[in-house]
Amino acid sequence: MRVGIIGAGGWGTALAVLMGDQGYTVDLWAREQEVACEINTCRTNSSFLEGVFIPENVCATCDMEKVIKMNSILLIPVPAQHMRNVIRQARPHLTCDHILIHAAKGIEEGTLMRVSEVIAQELPAGMNKNIGVLSGPSHAEEVARGVPTAVVVASYHTNVANLAQETLRCSTFRVYTSKDVIGVELGGALKNVIALATGVSDGLGFGDNTRAAIMTRGIAEIVRLGVALGASPMTFAGLSGMGDVIVTCMSMLSRNRRAGMRIAKGEKVEEVLASTKMVVEGVTTTKAAVALSNKHNVELPIASALSKVLFEDLDPRKAVEDLMLRAPVPETRIRFEYIPEPSDPTIGSL
């Protein structure tokens, strides 16, 4: 059994450990030569997943063509903003026999595309049916240590989701399937916005009440935008939605929450991003979420306030005060008008 992984960051390394422990031969593509060398010689990846032993049956390489040609199933856990360039690099070596399961949690800046849309746009039309997304509450550090975890794989095509489920599942990694690609991708992306906001709240010294308010009202915002974009509202009550919001907003393993805490204490966004090799997806996703809300006339008070803190130097305490003093409204006022998405992702606009 063999599987290829494109991307040796924290999540890619964790997936390599997961698959290696299941007995797979894992070909892991790393962008940096020093990362590949460390994995192969020391069985560690101190740059992205410190303190984790990487099994001997994981082989790291900087030769993407080799990884692609040796594997029909490819997991692609690279950040959303890098996905287009990675797919362009991979495209000459891909065939219609390859299954591509991405694990990015973001929205492409500028185009406002979901990651599966970015991948589909870069590949021949015949390969659209081979794309899936892996999401859900899954810290890389815990997955690599064998902590029981549940995730979801979504694809427009059942055979793709089922194949990914069968490949990934084991006694510590339970995999569910879904056809709601839009909902699963948006849930995974937008929860990072809410995690940044809860981090700001925590950094200001507020308590559990405030965090709970941000999380629950944040989920309401995710549902509103998701439904407007064609997702099923029920998806956000699942793993890529409520589950992802809980784990990302409550844990200190969350880089988005930690970033929000630092910003609340006075650090500039640029300083926070420059201080780590890990990508803080929530920053660019906040900008994208606000742009999408404006485009589709959807109200996102928390995301909008966070955007002003991140990009307009609004004082975080003033942002919280503004949110608290908004005009009073009923708690439940979402009108769901869900129209099932087409099974073929080439139908409709991207």
Summarize the structure.
This protein is an alpha/beta fold and 350 residues long. 49% of the residues lie in helices and 11% in strands.
Low-confidence stretches: 344-350
Q: What's the total count of β strands?
A: 8
Globally, the shape reads globular
- By DSSP (H or I, 4+ residues per run), the number of helices equals 15
The number of domains is 2
What does the main sheet amount to? 8 strands, mixed
Q: Which class of the largest domain in CATH terms? A: Alpha Beta
The SS-based structural class is: alpha/beta
Describe the 3D structure:
The chain has 350 residues and is an alpha/beta fold. It has two domains: 2-179, 3-Layer(aba) Sandwich (Rossmann fold), CATH 3.40.50.720; 183-324, N-(1-d-carboxylethyl)-l-norvaline Dehydrogenase, domain 2 (Orthogonal Bundle), CATH 1.10.1040.10. The chain has 15 helices and eight strands. It has an eight-stranded mixed β-sheet, sandwiched between helices. Strand 2 (25-29), helix 2 and strand 3 form a beta-alpha-beta unit. Helix 8 (181-203) packs antiparallel against helix 9 (208-228), helix 9 (208-228) runs antiparallel to helix 10 and helix 13 (281-296) crosses helix 14.
Ordered list of secondary-structure elements with their pairings:
Elements: E1 2-6, H1 10-21, E2 25-29, H2 33-42, E3 58-61, H3 64-69, E4 73-76, H4 80-90, E5 99-102, H5 115-122, E6 131-135, H6 140-144, E7 149-154, H7 158-168, E8 173-178, H8 181-203, H9 208-228, H10 239-250, H11 255-264, H12 269-274, H13 281-296, H14 301-311, H15 316-324
Parallel strand pairs: 1-2, 1-4, 2-3, 4-5, 5-6, 7-8
Antiparallel strand pairs: 6-7
Helix pairs in contact: 4-5, 8-9, 8-10, 8-11, 8-13, 9-10, 13-14, 14-15
